[in-house]
Amino acid sequence: MDSSAEAPFWWLGALTALAWGLYDLGSLVHQTKQVGNLAQALSGSKTVALTEDSRDDLRFSAFVDVALAAVWFGLAAAGWWWTFKVFADEKGATAAQIEETSYADFIAAASVIATAFGLLLLLRAVTGWWARSTVGLHVWRIPLLQGPLVDFGSLQGVPTGWVSNDPKHAVARCICTAELVQMYPHDAEEIRESLDVVASPHCPIHGIDAINSMSPTEFTHAADQAWLWAAESPWPSRNGQGSGSTVVLGFTGAAFTGYYASIDKDGRVDTGEDSDRAEEFIGQQLDEPEALSAPPLGGIDKIDLHGSGFSGFAVRYKHSRAWFVADETPADSDQSTD
Q1: Is residue 1 part of a domain?
Q2: Is 318 strand, coil or helix?
Q3: Do residues 174 and 302 both lie within one domain?
Q4: Across 130-141, average pLDDT
């Protein structure tokens, strides 16, 4: 053992890191088993098919960490070879010469880092494989507004209260962009180049009057448009029924969070060409409005959106965009099959 004065601190740090890692690994194993038990309890006899994109994403997720680990191990091997070569070349040199010219310690430090990254990725690959084999492949219908999973697939990727600014899909008589440019002329170029802009309350197409002039049927059919909803409103969530409903494919817990997917018109689970891994947030890390309750005053009507595949209602207001009021439903799970 190293007898230098710093040695106890290095050993203490190493043992602390080891204890923390073992605790974290134990928590991961416990969580994965709980998710597996939940999946087994919720799963019925229903199975769903996967699209080719979904199967490709699952294969990629199983391979990518191993491939990256191999790259890091290759870099580490090259670094260690170079380090020992430098050591061999320095054999017989004096301490003063080594102090002035040696760079082996820098190469060795980089090799240690590369080795650590490789081991971390390999551990992640092994735990991910174990978690998927333990839990199984399931399609999760989760109340995305009420749990730690964020639904990035809602409203076609546009925030509530905003409207697309894509010139390819320009809408006649829309004044949302023009009004922002008028209000902030110094930012005109940036506004015009933005993918999305805040919907104007006075716009004849995307304004509050336009929202309230819709019949309940028209509103229901357009409920997946972000500009209908107040910026403070929760994101409208799908109820997991029918074409277009948002689900999570392959979730096993922290070991593998799975992919956001949707149910296509043929009833298959599709992650799409630009698939997104599901992400978990804890507490206030979730970038979401704190006030999730619709205002109690000023309401015009309440529209049932279940017929369009949403898990809740829309409440329209005289002087505000609509608010989404979600159902309080537990998560459920379907088993997937190829």
Answers
A1: no
A2: coil
A3: yes
A4: 87
Q: Coil, strand, or helix at residue 117?
A: helix
Q: Which residues contact 58 (CB under 8 A, 6 or more apart)?
A: 50, 137, 249, 250, 259
Which amino acid belongs to residue 83?
T
- Nearest Cα neighbor of 252 from 331, 120, 139 is 139
**Residue 88: both structure tokens together:** 């061999």
Alpha helices of the chain — where are they, by DSSP H?
Answer: 7-42, 52-89, 95-101, 104-135, 176-183, 188-193, 208-212, 216-221
Mean pLDDT, the chain, rounded, equals 79
User: CA angle, corner 16, sides to 12 and 21, nearest 5?
Assistant: 150
Domain count across the chain: 2
Sequence-distant (≥ 6) Cβ neighbours of residue 3 within 8 angstroms: none
Q: Let me know if residue 148 belongs to a domain.
A: no
- Per-residue pLDDT of 8-25, as tens digits, reads 777 888 888 888 888 888
- Which residue among 135, 169, 198 closes a domain? 135
pLDDT tens for 203-244 read: 999 999 999 999 999 998 888 888 999 988 877 766 544 444
Domain boundary among 135, 168, 197: 135
At 315, give phi and psi (nearest 5°): -115, 120
- Residue the block writes with tokens 């409005």: 289
User: Do 109 and 175 fall into the same domain?
Assistant: no
Q: Is residue 142 part of a domain?
A: no
Residues 6+ apart with CB under 8 A from 240: 141, 246, 247, 263, 311, 332
Domain region containing 103: 7-135
Place of tokens 């989760």: 142
